[in-house]
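Please fill in the sequence for the structure shown.

STRUCTURE ENCODING:
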């Protein structure tokens, strides 16, 4: 079974090759070497964040492998974001991600 990390890298490459600017989104918080806490994206935020060049529409993609399931915080985010005109979805492959960004609103 392919890892989520490997799938995520394939998605980043595929979207970048299809007129999108995307990057990995880290959620939670980290401690710096000098002991400071840095807040990243909120818990539940999707793995990939970006935009589609053609219209500037925001892209948010949660990456899962074939067995992966959404955590409760990710389910809550999915329910929340459906209220907005954002290209959001769960992708288990680069093909899934390309299908998500091809949606027209």
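FILLED IN BY: designer on duty
SEQUENCE:
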């Amino acid at each position: 079974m392919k890892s989520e990390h490997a799938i995520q890298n394939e998605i980043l490459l595929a979207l970048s090759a299809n007129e999108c600017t995307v990057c990995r989104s880290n959620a939670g918080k980290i401690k710096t070497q000098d002991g400071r806490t840095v807040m990243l994206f909120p818990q539940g935020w999707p793995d990939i964040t970006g935009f589609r060049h053609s219209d500037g529409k925001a892209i948010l993609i949660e990456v899962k492998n074939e067995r992966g399931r959404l955590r409760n915080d990710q389910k809550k985010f999915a329910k929340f974001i459906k209220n907005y005109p954002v290209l959001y979805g769960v992708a288990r492959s680069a093909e899934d991600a390309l299908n998500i960004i091809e949606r027209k609103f």
